[in-house]
Amino acid sequence: MQRIGLFGGSFNPVHLGHLLVARAAQEELQLSRLFFIPAAQSPFKPGLVLAPPEQRLRLLRLALAGRTGCEIDDQEIKRGGISYTIDSVRDYARRFPGARLFYLIGADHVPQLPKWREAIDLARLVEVVVIPRPGQLATPLPVPFRGHALAGFPLGVSSSQIRDRVRAGLPIDLLVGPAVAEAIRNNRLYL
Ligand code: ATP
To answer: Which ligand 1 atom minimizes the distance to the CA of 10?
Structure first.
């Protein structure tokens, strides 16, 4: 049986916290494949102007280059508009009948899960995988969600922190990796 990980987010930009989430899930859940699914626009950050989708995709490609088992799925970008997890999850359920689908989220998202669109169907289709995030209390999964909490590699870095640092002219290399940092600089993103 295939074990497929799904990792949605704005990835604005991708950072080492995301990569450590991915690594923890791959190792602890023995995933056969792990898909990063960048959102066109998050329903929970409606006012936030994101870097253009092709730039966020470019950064993801750089960050994931050479990482076996990690793939990028641009279906939410292609659909455009507000991205709802249930739409992408249904697509995976159709494409991989019988597979176990694991949906990765940082601990900060757990309390909001019941508010996600079509939460009951979502809870039926995926096992939620919660990755610890420093500063977030570990809360139990709300009913009817089921899933796993990983040990992970807790790292207190966020995309907003990266954007703030770029704007302030502070270095980000160690937080996003050298290739992503260089692309952010060359394309004058997040200034
Ligand atoms: P922002 O600071 O703009 O809100 P973010 O750093 O939370 O962004 P997202 O792309 O919104 O990044 O996150 C995608 C997913 O990755 C979410 O489930 C989020 O909880 C999780 N995540 C992001 N950073 C971390 C981290 N350092 N540790 C654990 N989970 C994380």
So the answer is: 10
Global pTM value: 0.97
Residue of 6, 10, 174, 180 to test ligand 1 pocket, by largest number of atoms within 8 Å of CB = 10
Indicate which CATH number applies to the domain containing 78.
3.40.50.620
Strands (E) located in the chain = 3-9, 33-38, 70-72, 100-106, 127-131, 147-149
Average pLDDT over the chain, rounded to an integer: 95
Tell me if 163 is assigned to some domain: no
**Maximum separation of any 2 CA atoms in the chain, in Å:** 49
Ligand 1 centroid – CA 93 distance (Å) = 24
Token pair listed for 100: 């176990």
- The pLDDT tens digits of the residues spanning 106-125 come to 998 999 999 999 999 999 99
Ligand 1 center from residue 90 Cα (angstroms) = 22
At residue 114, the pLDDT reads: 96
- Please count the structural domains in the chain: 1
